[in-house]
Amino acid sequence: MIDRFGPLPAEVEQLADIVRLRWQACQVGFEKLTLKKNLLKGYIPATGNEAYFQGDTFGNILSYVQTHTRSASMKERKEQLILSIEDVKNVQAAKRILNKLGREETWGLNSNSPLDRRCFFGNSAYFYYPQFILKHCTTFGN
User: Fold this and answer.
1) What residue ranges of the chain have pLDDT lower than 50?
2) pTM (two decimals)
């Protein structure tokens, strides 16, 4: 990304990468994603998600856990499935892993309506378009 005033500072590039990572997390089906102390955790709601659990994306997640037994695990806690992946050093490594888990299908989205192209992440709603992400100004749940 280049600004008319010159290259963007590294901090701005990192912030953009974090937003892209959140977008990828939503596409994979995570309602929450954390990267702390080289441990990536993705949280999937365990209830009301039957179609998701029968789809290709969840199959990709299960395959990843089965083929990366030393670094990846999944457990259920408090109505959530938690995918944990060790040795994830930075945001770029997390993005590469989420690319592998990538989502090929779309559940319940109407591509003609921008309001249906949204994901709730934390207390904010994000609206997705092919080239960019717009964060909705209103926070939810507070």
Assistant:
1) 104-118, 120-142
2) 0.69
